[in-house]
């Protein structure tokens, strides 16, 4: 890993720290816990990267005339049943809804990028040195924010992401990588 040589990297890092410290202090002043802040922070990231992206793609397909307008309703689990334990309280439940495809695809892309970086594969096309400290930190942050999806990759039953969603997400991730390769060559 290369040392950070540009002091400009400090600007987004300091903004990131200031925002998170400020929002955490707001939760603490409202007598809420840091865990409540973290859960809400994660959910803001998950919502913006799943339902907003899903909605954007739905609008594009509608404008192109390839799809009809429809609402995707997902199941919400709020109660603990007889087969659940307190250790499962608050866990994501997954089904075959397409709403889980973008979030799973983002997680798979991020995990693949981190794995390739750890294995020593670095892209030097475009004159860069490959992955930098900022990219690694941001990738780890995305994985932490999508930790519920990560656990869902290995979960079983309603707490696991169905294989059909994983296959669709993997296909979407591969198409995105191919699109990026195609646009970087042109």
Automatic annotation (TrEMBL):
Cell wall biogenesis/degradation in keyword set: yes
Gene Ontology MF annotations: glycosyltransferase activity
Subcellular location: Endomembrane system
Keywords for the protein's UniProt record, in alphabetical order: Cell wall biogenesis/degradation, Glycosyltransferase, Membrane, Transferase, Transmembrane, Transmembrane helix
Coiled-coil ranges (or none): none
GO annotation, biological process: cell wall organization
Residue intervals passing through the bilayer: 6-22, 43-64, 99-121, 133-153, 159-180
Pfam (any one): Cellulose_synt
Top-rank taxon, per record: Eukaryota
GO CC entries: endomembrane system
Principal subcellular localisation of the protein: membrane
InterPro entries named among the record's database cross-references: Cellulose_synth (IPR005150)
Record-given protein name: Cellulose synthase-like protein H1
Lineage of the species this protein comes from: Eukaryota, Viridiplantae, Streptophyta, Embryophyta, Tracheophyta
């Amino acid at each position: 890993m290369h040392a950070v040589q540009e002091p400009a990297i400090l600007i987004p890092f300091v903004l990131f720290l200031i925002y998170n410290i400020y929002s955490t202090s707001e939760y603490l002043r409202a007598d809420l816990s840091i865990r409540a802040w973290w859960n809400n922070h994660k959910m803001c990231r998950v919502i913006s990267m799943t339902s907003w992206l899903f909605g954007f793609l739905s609008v594009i397909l509608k404008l192109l005339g390839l799809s009809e307008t429809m609402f995707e309703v997902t199941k919400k689990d709020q109660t603990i049943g007889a087969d659940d334990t307190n250790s499962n309280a608050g866990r994501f439940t997954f089904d075959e809804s397409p709403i889980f495809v973008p979030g799973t695809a983002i997680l798979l892309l991020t995990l693949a990028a981190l794995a390739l970086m750890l294995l020593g594969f670095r892209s030097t096309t475009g004159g860069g040195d490959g992955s930098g400290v900022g990219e690694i930190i941001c990738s780890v942050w995305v994985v932490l924010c999508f930790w519920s999806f990560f656990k869902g990759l290995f979960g079983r039953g309603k707490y696991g992401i169905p294989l059909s969603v994983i296959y669709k997400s993997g296909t979407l991730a591969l198409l995105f990588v191919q699109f990026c390769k195609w646009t970087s060559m042109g």
